[in-house]
Known about the structure:
Layout: E1 17-20, E2 26-30, H1 32-42, E3 49-51, E4 57-61, E5 74-77, E6 86-89, E7 101-104, H2 115-130, E8 138-139, E9 146-147, E10 151-158, E11 161-168, H3 173-180
Antiparallel strand pairs: 1-6, 2-4, 2-5, 3-4, 3-7, 8-9, 10-11
Amino acid sequence: MMSEALPWKPPSSADVEALPVGHWWDAVRVAATVGDHALKLLGDATGAVIQDSYTTLYWLIAVGGAKSWHLRQVHVLTKIADEDHYLGVPPVHWTTGPGTHWRVPLGRDRFLTDTRALWDALAEAVRTELRPVPEGRQLCYRCQLPTDEPIPLTVEHSGSVASPTVYACPRHAPHHRQERS
């Protein structure tokens, strides 16, 4: 059985199970646009990856391997002092959506992702996908709420005069790309 080779037992239930981060592994939560690009860059070097129903990706990494990371749209989930954090982990056989599933299946030879390789891939994906950091908070074009992590989408031009750049929050940026396709 696969769980014998792992330091923890993956859920065998019929549903997603909330498991504590910081015990067997930490997790790195990444927005879909950046995560998809990082997956391509990592190729076979990636470990197991969970995708939730919002298309957010979660890499499992060694405990304490990424505490000082600071990248846009990248959040490290770990145990902090007296706070417990949990990650929804699907059963091993859930390898397709919709809903939470293993985007990159968990296996004996595919468990944790090397933190250095993941950092390099995510840093490159952030540079490529999110472009330069806009100054200050911006309004999301869709929800019209201010966001501290604005994603520049397009620069609209009207005649010979450039209009302001259109921004989205991390939640709505993928929708903009789908609407424009």
